[in-house]
Specification:
single chain, alpha+beta, FAD/NAD(P)-binding domain, D-Amino Acid Oxidase, Chain A, domain 2, seven-stranded mixed sheet, six-stranded mixed sheet, 29% strand, globular, binds P-hydroxybenzoic acid
């Protein structure tokens, strides 16, 4: 069976889906309302699970990842001023990779353009109709209509496709945000550090051996200008103890909201949602990009099955196939978030519960193993 897929959004979900479909001989067109520069520069998370790396390798999109990605065999959990290592490889046999989402996006754009496949930047999608499937957009100052057989919404939490799936959304908000900075300085530690502190959560990550990525829990409504550099360094030093941050030039400073939401259905007729258009996890578990990669892997297999057999059975089962992993990631990300952050009105009782939870997580082998399985995405589903 031959058909065409219109993909809305050239983030990692849309671009990876386009790549997987192309490898399966299925035509697609990708529409992105921003310009190429914006899409390639936007700062997002940087942890890839083993499964995501395997998918990128199988898609022939891992040359730079295999050269520049940094394998991590564990993380450090800090609480009460002491560090406790969780060894992923020993506990699960799997590791994770540090490779920024923005690099994944650059690699997939370069491959798509090298293959001469349609990818329209600055194509502003104005409306979508489902019966029949059509994407109405503006490009080069002109209105256009694209007719296709299926539409996949990969246009994120603020996109236009999500509201076309009229299923209930289950969500939760958090009484804190993250201030994220990018620094020209070597990472705090050779692995990631997740720190519980009475001053609030801190996370020390990295982008390369010379670039650090660091986060501080801040109150909702915070603007970056209320955090001059010296305040940032002093808070990081306090919260990350016993680790010490390496100070350097701060090249980016932004505030990230913390949200959790799941749309109960990810499909409506010929429309399918993938990644942030369908679900948002708080960033504490580093799951957002990995869930998006899983969604589009399932979707690409379903489209491939349709093209080879004419049967829509895997497409019909798309939501059900994805939701189990989404809720596992949601539970893990929410647990990590509430275990590590200090709420504005938190009582000492609640702080002691968090410290006990952290102690249990780092001293009870099955509980440590559970964290390792969830973090590496190897939990049985
Ligand atoms: C990041 O490197 O940006 C990062 C790492 C781990 C997280 C969140 C963000 O949990």
């Amino acid at each position: 069976m031959s058909f065409t897929v219109g993909i809305v959004g050239a983030g990692p979900a849309g671009l990876l889906l386009g790549r997987l479909l192309h490898r399966a001989g299925i035509d697609s067109v990708v529409f992105e309302n921003r310009d190429r520069d914006y899409v390639e520069q936007r700062q997002r998370a940087g942890i890839l699970e083993q499964g995501t790396v395997n998918t990128l390798r199988a898609a022939g999109a891992a040359d730079r990842l295999d050269r520049l990605g940094i394998p991590h065999d564990g993380i450090d959990l800090v609480y009460d001023g002491a560090a406790h290592r969780v060894d992923f490889v020993e506990l699960t046999g799997a590791r994770v990779w540090i490779y920024a989402q923005t690099e994944v996006v650059k690699d997939l754009i370069a491959l798509r353009l090298a293959d001469d496949l349609p990818l329209l930047f600055e194509a502003e999608v104005q409306s979508i109709t489902l019966d029949p499937p059509m994407i109405h957009y503006r490009h080069d100052g002109q209105p256009h209509t694209f007719s296709c057989d299926y539409i996949v919404g990969c246009d994120g939490f603020h996109g236009v496709t999500r509201d076309l799936v009229p299923a209930p959304v289950l969500s939760r908000s958090f009484p804190y945000s993250w201030l994220g900075i990018l620094v020209d300085a070597p990472p705090v530690h050779h692995e990631l550090v997740y720190a519980h502190s009475r001053h609030g959560f801190a996370l020390a990550s990295m982008r390369s051996p010379t670039i650090s990525r660091l986060y501080l829990q801040v109150p909702n409504g915070t603007t970056p200008d209320t955090w001059p550099d010296d305040r940032i360094w002093s808070e990081l030093t306090t919260r990350l103890t016993p680790h010490t941050p390496n100070e350097g030039r701060i090249t980016a400073k932004s505030v990230l909201p913390m949200r959790a939401s799941v749309r109960q259905s990810m499909q409506q007729g010929p429309l399918f949602l993938a990644g942030d258009a369908a679900h948002i996890v708080p960033p504490t578990g580093a799951k957002g990009l990995n869930l998006a990669a899983h969604d589009v892997t399932v979707l690409a297999e379903a489209f491939t099955h349709l093209s080879q057999t004419g049967s829509p059975e895997l497409l019909d089962a798309y939501t059900e196939t994805c939701l189990r992993r989404i809720w596992r990631a949601q539970h893990f990300s929410n647990t990590m978030t509430t275990m590590l952050h200090i709420s504005p009105d938190q009582t000492e009782f609640e702080t002691q519960l968090q410290l006990s939870h952290l102690h249990h997580t780092t001293t009870s082998p099955p509980t440590t193993q559970s964290l390792a399985e969830n973090y590496t995405g190897t939990t049985p589903l």
